[in-house]
Design goal:
The protein is mostly helical and 161 residues long. It has one domain. It has five helices and no strands. The chain has helices at residues 6-29, 54-71, 74-97, 109-122, 130-153. Helix 2 (54-71) runs antiparallel to helix 3.
């Protein structure tokens, strides 16, 4: 029989909460000035695209750090926050190189780029347990789809992905 310790799952979700909040804030608060300042990469395409803004990045950073502060995990949570935002930018960079339009879905990458960035950066400070990595990696795609669908239904997003 499969046994899942819900306290471990709860801890994993609590641990990654600053990254989740940081990733959600740019969608809610966006902005106009593009983080890549509308510059093009050597392939002639935008570096990150029209959905990645300076205001969104800063609000995501501030919100994630605020969550980390409330949790009492300022250093780890702040690193998770920054890693999530950088991971999301990395995903956008990859999508632009593969000629995906901003907002066009790219399953798995869209759901896990920010988590990969968070885990990579936080591993430089204090590596999360394999259990935490496992549960977050498994749960995040479902939570990401659920929250994006809710944002679409609430007319916060133009598309449900």
């Amino acid at each position: 029989m499969l046994y899942i310790d819900l306290t471990v799952v709860g801890y994993a979700l609590y641990y990654i909460l600053p990254a989740y909040v940081a990733n959600a804030m740019p969608t809610l608060f966006g902005g106009k000035t593009l983080i890549d300042l509308d510059r093009r990469f050597i392939d002639g395409r935008p570096i990150f695209g029209e959905h990645k803004t300076i205001r969104g990045f800063i609000i995501g950073l501030v919100a994630g750090v605020a969550v980390a502060f409330v949790q009492g995990s300022l250093i780890i949570g702040s690193v998770l926050t920054l890693g999530a935002l950088l991971g999301d930018l990395g995903g956008a960079f990859i999508k632009r190189r593969l000629n995906f339009s901003p907002g066009q879905p790219f399953p798995i990458l869209d759901q896990l780029d920010f988590i990969a960035g968070a885990f990579l950066l936080v591993s430089l400070v204090s590596a999360p347990s394999l259990e935490t990595i496992f549960f977050i990696t498994v749960l995040t795609p479902f939570l990401h789809i659920l929250t994006n669908t809710c944002a679409y239904l609430l007319r916060i997003k133009d598309v449900p992905w």
